[in-house]
Input
Amino acid sequence: KAGVTQTPRYLIKTRGQQVTLSCSPISGHRSVSWYQQTPGQGLQFLFEYFSETQRNKGNFPGRFSGRQFSNSRSEMNVSTLELGDSALYLCASGWGLESYEQYFGPGTRLTVT
Amino acid sequence: AQKITQTQPGMFVQEKEAVTLDCTYDTSDPSYGLFWYKQPSSGEMIFLIYQGSYDQQNATEGRYSLNFQKARKSANLVISASQLGDSAMYFCAMMRSGAGSYQLTFGKGTKLSVIP
Output
């Protein structure tokens, strides 16, 4: 059974640009969550999608957005990149219904210069 | 609000010895789940073990066991027979339930180093 995949694995962008990250969940999983990990703030929840609907959102500015497709794949977009957006972005997939299991992908390491 | 506290920024353990990583949590939710994840230097978060707030018995998964003390709000991870490959960051996390959404709150992590 394939695990959670994230693309790209590494990304370098310039301040002011925008970026789109992709996450493919484990087959059958309908919930996808996104987290940002930085040395200073640790792991912070961005948002969670279930069946193409955003169910929950963390405390991040509107520059951070996401969506989920009918096949449960999810994308995360960050517009007008800032230096502080440099981080490891992790996505996690789960069944989303009466199951707490969450499995993470390998992450996308974003560097903003 | 939920909060996870890991008081040990770093720990050392001799190979083949057991080690306990501490985790305390704070929540007013009656139903919640507690997780431990391992993060090697590659960055991937590897699921280790899960404990539900209503589970009567402590969770075990191979060499990993979770010492769950609900009244004290602690969920310590015990790794038996440490191996060199156990060297990594370890995160304790909590998920709330009943809100129709799944969101993990993480602690700051403990860096475990296994000494040969």
Residues 60 and 74 of chain B are 16 Å apart (CA to CA).
